[in-house]
Amino acid sequence: MWPELETLLQDGIVGFFTQFELLEILGYPPNSRTPINLFTLAIAGDDGLSVLETGFLTKRIALNSLKGWSFGLHRQMLSIPKLLESLNVLKSEGTWLPASLPVWVGKLTPLQRQFVPANSLNDIPYNRVLKNNFGNGSLVFELIDPLKTGLAPLLSKSTSLLDLSEKISTAIPLHIGKLADRLGGVTIQLPVEVIQSRFGRRGGEYAVEVAWHPKATPRNLNATVEVVYDETILGFGSMNITDGEAIIAPDAGIGTFRGHIWDPQNNILLSATDETAFINTVSFGMGLVRHEPRVFQSNAYDSNLQDMRVQLVGHDTQSIVGDTSASDIRRPVRNRIYKEERTRLTEQRRFVQYNPKQHGAATERSRALSDVRGLIDQFGFKGVWLWDPFLAPQDVIDTLFYNKNFGSEMRAITALKTPAGSTTTKEALKATYAALLQNLRSNFHGLKIEFRSSDGNNGWDFHDRFIIFPYLENGARAWSLGTSVNGLGKAHHILQEADNGQLIHDAFLELWDAVDQPTNLVWKQP
Questions:
Q1: Local structure of 179: helix, strand or coil
Q2: Residues 46 and 126 both lie in one domain
Q3: Which terminus of the chain has a smaller tally of CB atoms within 10 A, N or C?
Q4: Which pLDDT band holds residue 196 (cuts at 50, 70, 90)?
Q5: Burial of 100 by CB count in 10 Å (0-12 exposed, 13-18 middle, 19+ buried)?
Q6: In 298-344, which ranges are continuous DSSP H helix?
Q7: Which residues have C-beta within 8 Å of that of residue 254, sequence separation ≥ 6?
Q8: pLDDT band at 36 (very low <50, low <70, confident <90, very high)
Q9: Containing H/E element for 202?
């Protein structure tokens, strides 16, 4: 199937392999005795594989969302001749028979040989289903099933696949839910073990170090380094090396690099790095934990409920250690790249969906509030703005009061909206809100909030609900809540980051400045 596979399995080319560990994720459809190949991974190794447990590694897995189906994870050891024989039978007869029982596979198509490096700055997708791909990386041979017809019931329900992936990963770290395009296929992994390599920095230059396996005969290799910054090549070097260390290219001081080791004798990569960078500077932000917690009444309307306590953190000082000579270059480029990336991702929106009908109202309410509070803790160290036409005292308590960042500047705007049928006037509602917050049982420690309404001649009506983080390094960010704070998790809605947080920031600020009048102030602390 691959003429070079048998050659590369010979001693001393990629490693010293004697057998394969075969991991098969099998699906059992309703009323069928023949399992379906969900994913098969064959990892080349030596005699040490013999100590691994064989057989099914999990009990038969059933999914509530896929009636009648079950799944299993099976491990066995195969000799190299047996695996090669199984591949030849698959090619000639279309039957996958690595063990005594056949496994149904779709029409598989072989891909060209691939090389998958270890993760560095990036999460390399293929590593989610490879085994222990650290160090030099792995040569990979892959058979793909483009149609995946036998897996349609599973793939049509993303929740089913994620549930199965989670159950499989408790036994072995194969995260199939994160790489559904590889399902139905067969992957053969040859970890590079004939050498150990390391790319590093020596003073002002990039270097590589190579050490051979004790059984290997050293041969001539070629090492390269490419240094890239802002899609521009700042440095490149190539050097022949057999063993030991070699200097390859000058260090530009900024950018990331990729290193490769090529074996010209066998026309294969023996090592490659993902995009990699070295730390030049370290920024330390001193976030001192405050001894006194914020204590507040958890419910504005019921003083008998238990008080909440929030441990506060103060962001007081920041220090930079290391070489900062390139910071003036990095900052403007980083800001431009950030804006371009945000534009590019406009149509790739990430969102969190809440569905109380599916998961229960209490569960989704708790999850939604936890997610919003998590955003506040993560991005609200300098400020948080909350924009909601139905915003009431309990909503402010449920969100802004939980901000653990001491002294964070928080703003909130309400339109004093009430449920249909309410006869309360806006002035009466404003007075009620002010009294509830002013008389709240709390020490208000580290709390800095101004709560305004948009009623009257100064402001205007609004509909959207946003939480905004105005003081981030690369500009403001904003999330659409999808519902009012009082409705978080109670009905279906989506929490989603907005495409242009700065525009939402500017719109909020326009209204905020318009209602900067005593008649629009609901409550202020301190």
A1: coil
A2: yes
A3: C
A4: very high
A5: exposed
A6: 327-344
A7: 229, 234, 326, 329, 330
A8: very high
A9: strand 195-202
- Residue 278 maps to a domain: no
Give the Cα separation of 417 and 426 in Å (integer).
Answer: 8
Q: Are 376 and 313 in contact (CB under 8 A)?
A: no
**How many helical (H) and strand (E) elements, i.e. helices and strands, does the chain have?**
10, 27
Token output for 151: 């897996």
Same-domain status, 505 and 486: yes
pLDDT computed for residue 343 by the predictor = 45
Contacts (Cβ under 8 Å, ≥6 apart) of 262: 221, 222, 223, 224, 268, 269, 270
pLDDT bin (cut points 50, 70, 90) of residue 345 is: very low
What average pLDDT does the segment 121-139 reach? Answer: 91
Query: 19 versus 498: which is more confidently predicted?
Result: 19
Residue located via tokens 């897996």 = 151
Distances, alpha carbon 340 to alpha carbons 325, 334, 504, 507, in Å: 25, 10, 18, 22
Number of domains making up the chain: 3
What is the gyration radius of the CA atoms in the chain, in angstroms?
A: 30
- Asked if 445 and 332 sit in the same domain, the reply is yes
Q: Which tokens is 454 given?
A: 């948009």
What mean pLDDT is reported for the chain? Answer: 86
Strand, coil or helix: what is 407? Answer: coil
Q: Of 167, 191, 215, which marks where a domain is finished?
A: 191
Q: Three-state DSSP class for 222? A: strand
Q: Which residue has the tokens 């049928």?
A: 421
**pLDDT surpassing 50 at residue 254:** yes
Q: Flag whether pLDDT at 346 surpasses 50.
A: no
Structure-model confidence comparison of residues 63 and 474, the more confident one? 63
In the predicted structure, residue 420 carries a pLDDT above the cut 90:
no
Q: Are residues 178 and 200 in the same domain?
A: no
Q: Please check the confidence at residue 284 and state whether its pLDDT lies above 80.
A: no
What's 265's domain CATH number?
2.60.40
Which helix (DSSP H) or strand (DSSP E) does residue 165 occupy? helix 158-169
Biggest CA-to-CA distance, the chain: 89
Count of CA atoms in the C-beta half-sphere (13 A) of 38: 29
For the residues 203-226, what does the mean pLDDT come to? 93
Domain span at 218: 195-272
Give the three-state DSSP class for 334. Answer: helix
